[in-house]
Structure formats: structure tokens, C-alpha cells
Design brief:
- This protein is an alpha/beta fold.
- Helix content is about 35%, strand content about 25%.
- It contains 14 helices and 18 strands.
- Pathway: Amino-acid biosynthesis; L-methionine biosynthesis via de novo pathway; L-homoserine from L-aspartate: step 3/3; Amino-acid biosynthesis; L-threonine biosynthesis; L-threonine from L-aspartate: step 3/5.
- Catalyzes the conversion of L-aspartate-beta-semialdehyde (L-Asa) to L-homoserine (L-Hse), the third step in the biosynthesis of threonine and methionine from aspartate.
- InterPro entries: ACT-like_dom_sf (IPR045865), ACT_dom (IPR002912), Asp/hSer_DH_NAD-bd (IPR005106), HDH (IPR016204), HDH_cat (IPR001342), HDH_CS (IPR019811), NAD(P)-bd_dom_sf (IPR036291).
- It is an enzyme of class 1 (oxidoreductase).
């Protein structure tokens, strides 16, 4: 049959692996789709650079716009990342009827709506499995397999760099700085790790997950975001002593009344008995809780050239089949239009460590302040004596606004020398 022509934008870590897999699995892919794929061109920033890929050098070009708008191109794969020129190139391809496969989480989280609109106008497909959790089949189950169910919560580890850092801090007692340096040496962290350690990467992924799970448009700006740079070896050791582990979690959940959703990324303590506690190294894992299906867990490699390329090729097969059948895959679903509520309305729990004066009446005054803000205490214990006295408190569920007000009040109490640490708790109430 006539081959389906593919334009590739980017030939870096992921793009080179896409080319490798397309060559190695050429015959199998053709059999699965019903027609072979043929690389029409590869857009790169610089020509002449040595690349370890098996592709005709004449296919390389720096004119990405001309490549994606060529009449003979059927499918565009975008793996260059960033907002521009990716947005302009993808939009140009979609409006001309091309189908697009992208791994661009940042663009989808910032301006996915315009890409969906371009796909609708042009009549092509927009697939993006590789944008979240690498090789893990996660988005298609949310987008298709669970389309007949009601998803109530998505909870997981979606950034391998931060998971590696926190895992090393937990298993070896390393400081954040030492664990980060090790991650950079092994290639798990970039030279500038800001996007990972400050939670920007995870926030973009959370926005995509929430949009699909709750049929509502969510952008990265609406995601409450906290990073892990303030986590100390002492915090990790303290959590370990209590049977907890600290993870950077992406949490997308319906409110109790079902009228809004909360989308947040922040470090949290989870019990060591929880399945997410056992997710080690740079792996990802995500729980999806649906009314009929119950609790589902997706686990695997969340990053890397080959795993991400695997997800890209899965989408390539899907859009190739649709192209031959004259069909289209799922479009944007925003019928629910649920409000994204601010973090202050989110109901959560906290672990609080207070350096306090060791004298009678301390616990009563602290408990009184918690009660004033309608925050119920689940457990409390004192550690140390004299100048080393510390109260360790775990609360029941309360709004984040009430918890924040309580912390501010504690800092003003004369019996509290310092609020040593505040950490949200997930997964054990």
C-alpha cells in the first residue's frame, strides 16, 4: 500500500529513538497499521551535526515549517519541546489536516485548547500519550478505557528526577544537594533542574491528567505547585522513624460535593505500607480511582529516550490506523466544565513538628489554637525534654486554609519557639 509519510520535529534523545524503532520495527508496524511508515523529513536546528541515527542525511532540514506543511506529509511527530516554535508548527500541521503526535507536556498544559481547536478545524488527530509518564499507558485509559466511568481521583508520582532524589535521601540519608548531584551525574536530572525540583514538570502533567479525568479544561497555572528544594535530610529521617516516606505527588481530585476539582503538586508523607512508597529510583506510578472500576495502578519508566519513544510509536500506530480508515480518535472533552478550586479549599491533612517550651499547659494551648481554626488533631506526642522538647502532631482532614491559619497562629504563640516542619499527609486515613 501507499506509505504514510511522517515528518519528525526533533532528533535529540527521544527523536533519535523514534527513528531507531521505526527502522527496527518497520515491517511489524506496517502489518499492524495496514501500510508502511516512511520518514519524509527530520527538522533539526543545525545541519552537519553528527547524529547516531540510520536516516538519509538528505532528509534533514532546518525549515520545519515547510516540512510540516508539505502536501505529501500525513503525520507530524513533535519532540522538540517548549512552547515556541512547537505551538506554531503543530498548529500549522493540524489546520492543514495532518495528524500530530506530540510529547510536549508544557505546551499541552499551557495551551492545549488551541491545539484541539486546530485539530477540529483540520480534521486530523492529536495524540499525546508520551507527554505524561513516558512509556506508561496512562492517558489512553483515561481518555478511552474509562470513558464510561466516573473518575474521582488521580494520585501519583509523575516526575522521575524528584523521585530519584527523594528515594536516595530516604535510603542513604543523603542531603538534597548530594542526591541532586548524583541524579545529575547519572543523567536523571538536567544541569538546570528547576523544572523538576520546583514541581513545574509535574504540574504540567497534573493539568493534563485532570483535564482528561474530569472532562474539564485545566491549565498549568491552575495547579497548586510546591517543589522539594526545602526538604531536608532531617525531614526524611523523621518521616522514616514514623513509618512514612516523602514523595512529590500529583493529586487531582473531585471535591466532596462533586462540584469542583482540586489539582495540586507538592511533597507529602505517605505510609511505607502504601504501594507508592515502594516506587524507587526514577520510576513513576499513578493511581486512578473510579466509581465502577475501583482503584487502578499504572507503573513503569516515566522518562528516557526509548520509553518515551515507545509511547510515541503507540500513538503513531493509532493515528496511522485512523488515517487509513478515514476515522478520527477522541477529541477534547470538556462537557463537565468543573471549577478548579484554589488550594485553600482543598481538604487535606498535615504532620506538624513544633519546637516548644517544656512546661505545663503547652499541649492545652496548642490544642486550643487548633480547635479555634476547626482543625481536629488525630495524634500528638512529645519528643525530647527541656530545650529539645518537640511536639509532633498529625491532624485529621481540614481545609488547607484552616491549616495555614493554624500554622500562622502557632508561630505567634510565646510557648512555640519554632514551627520546625509542616508536611501534608496522604494515603492513610
Amino acid at each position: 500500500m501507499k506509505p504514510l509519510k511522517v515528518a519528525l520535529l526533533g532528533c535529540g534523545v527521544v527523536g533519535s529513538q523514534v527513528i531507531r524503532l521505526m527502522h527496527e520495527q518497520h515491517d511489524d508496524l506496517a502489518a499492524r497499521v495496514g501500510a508502511p511508515f516512511e520518514i519524509a523529513g527530520v527538522a533539526v536546528r543545525r545541519l552537519g551535526r553528527k547524529r547516531d541515527v540510520e536516516v538519509d542525511p538528505g532528509l534533514f532540514t532546518t525549515d520545519a515549517e515547510s516540512l510540516v506543511t508539505r502536501d505529501d506529509v500525513d503525520i507530524v511527530i513533535e519532540v522538540i519541546g517548549g512552547i515556541e516554535p512547537a505551538r506554531s508548527l503543530i498548529t500549522a500541521a493540524l489546520t492543514r489536516g495532518k495528524s500530530v503526535v506530540t510529547a510536549n507536556k508544557a505546551l499541552l498544559a499551557e495551551d492545549g485548547a488551541s491545539l484541539y481547536e486546530a485539530a477540529r478545524a483540520g480534521g486530523g488527530d492529536l495524540y499525546f500519550e508520551a507527554s505524561v509518564a513516558g512509556a506508561i499507558p496512562l492517558l489512553r485509559p483515561l481518555r478511552e478505557s474509562l470513558a464510561g466511568d466516573r473518575v474521582n481521583r488521580v494520585l501519583g508520582i509523575v516526575n522521575g528526577t524528584t523521585n530519584y532524589i527523594l528515594d536516595k535521601m530516604d535510603s542513604t540519608g543523603a542531603s538534597f544537594t548530594d542526591a541532586l548531584e548524583e541524579a545529575q551525574t547519572l543523567g536523571y536530572a538536567e544541569a538546570d533542574p528547576t523544572a523538576d525540583v520546583e514541581g513545574f514538570d509535574a504540574a504540567a502533567k497534573a493539568a493534563i491528567l485532570a483535564s482528561l479525568a474530569f472532562h474539564s479544561r485545566v491549565t498549568a497555572e491552575q495547579v497548586h505547585r510546591e517543589g522539594i528544594t526545602e526538604i531536608t535530610a532531617t525531614d526524611v529521617a523523621s518521616a522514616k522513624d514514623m513509618g512514612y516516606v516523602i514523595k512529590l505527588l500529583a493529586i487531582c481530585a473531585r471535591s466532596d460535593d462533586g462540584r469542583s476539582i482540586g489539582v495540586r503538586v507538592h511533597p507529602a508523607m505517605i505510609p511505607r505500607s502504601h504501594p507508592l512508597a515502594g516506587v524507587r529510583e526514577a520510576y513513576n506510578a499513578v493511581f486512578v480511582e473510579a466509581e465502577s472500576a475501583g482503584q487502578l495502578m499504572f507503573y513503569g519508566k516515566g522518562a528516557g529516550g526509548a520509553p518515551t519513544a515507545s509511547a510515541v510509536l503507540g500513538d503513531l500506530v493509532a493515528v496511522g490506523r485512523n488515517r487509513l480508515a478515514g476515522a478520527r480518535g477522541p477529541q477534547e472533552s470538556t462537557y463537565a466544565s468543573l471549577r478548579v478550586h484554589p488550594m485553600g479549599e482543598t481538604v487535606t491533612r498535615c504532620h506538624v513538628a513544633l519546637d516548644v517550651a517544656d512546661k505545663p499547659g503547652v499541649l492545652a494551648r496548642v490544642a486550643e489554637l487548633f480547635a479555634k481554626h476547626d482543625v481536629s488533631i488525630q495524634t500528638v506526642r512529645q519528643e525530647g525534654h527541656g530545650d529539645d522538647a518537640q511536639l509532633v502532631i498529625v491532624t485529621h482532614r481540614a481545609t488547607d486554609a484552616a491549616l495555614s491559619a493554624t500554622m500562622e497562629g502557632l508561630r505567634e504563640l510565646d510557648i512555640v519557639r519554632a514551627v520546625a516542619s509542616v508536611m501534608r499527609v496522604e494515603g492513610d486515613e
